[in-house]
Amino acid sequence: MQFSFTEDQQMIRDTAESLVARSCQMTEVRAFGDGQSDFVDALWQDLAKAGFNGALVAESHGGSGLGMLEAGIALEALGGALAPVPFLSTTAVADLIGRLGSDEQKSRYLSKIAAGQISAAIVGCPDPAHRDENGALRGQWAPVANAESADLLLVVVADTATGDADSYSVNVIEDIKDSCTVETFDTMDRTRRGFGAITLTGAAGVPLAGSLDGDGYARLGAILAAGSAVEMLGGAVQVLEMAKTYAMERVQFGRPIGAFQAIKHMLADQLVALEGLRSLVWAALWAIDNAPEEAPLAAATAKAVADQVALQLAGENIQIHGGIGFTADIDAHLYVKRVQLDRLVWGPPGIHTDFLEAHLEEMA
Q: How distant is the alpha carbon of residue 359 from its chain centre?
């Protein structure tokens, strides 16, 4: 395993961080949450021009031909800035189309994804759709990221006709609002809009040419879990930096509050927890690219720990800020709300801890 970024990966990281710092400033994020700004399209195009939207798209289809680790570098930067773009769902869709699509399907969708011309949503992992007795797709999911604005919806469908419990098909739906019932709703995280509930009401869509076996389904779950975990890592890094900076600047009884033992110990514990999470997250992203048989366990572990650590740091950041930390003027509450939503998307925390528990029982 590579324990540090390569020179190329470090360059990608520098590019991602500078792009996000320039195109996704907190003032814009706050204004977007208040409905007073719509900078998302510009940010989406900047990501596409830098090659990030096509991280998992082959160069032959206009992509960068990179891997999930490089996509994770972008996700960490986006998570730290509370970016409201559907990067993870679109990246997962691009990977599925690239692996299962026909030549015509790849040509139809992948170049547009890489160019930032379309975004995508995905449902069915976990909880795949099923077919009724008439062959129509049925299923319901919430909350679904990018439900309102997606140009493509990919639906993972359990293929019960084969009698194989680990056989799935993947259907592409373009006319989403005509084929499904989409009920959008506000979440506690106002910095991201467009979440909703999707109900399939007999939609068929067009199946990708290839079928999804158990290993492919596990890869998809790992991409979503590890991708969400690295976004949460990015937020946790920013939260710790906020807490540390405030503890050094805020003076009480003639001393910075960071000099008091209670605050010092809290920050030290946060750093230990953050570094542990960082190791798990990058191990999971590396495994997706290099050790696929290890990826499901590594990704589930990373997401389960991220659900705990990111929430811990976000909550304690408010405590360190004291009374002002509870006000809307401080960015601390934005990170708490983002973490709470991230814990629910792509499967609630119980799914990942249950997976780990089952794995431990198998080892016993």
A: 24
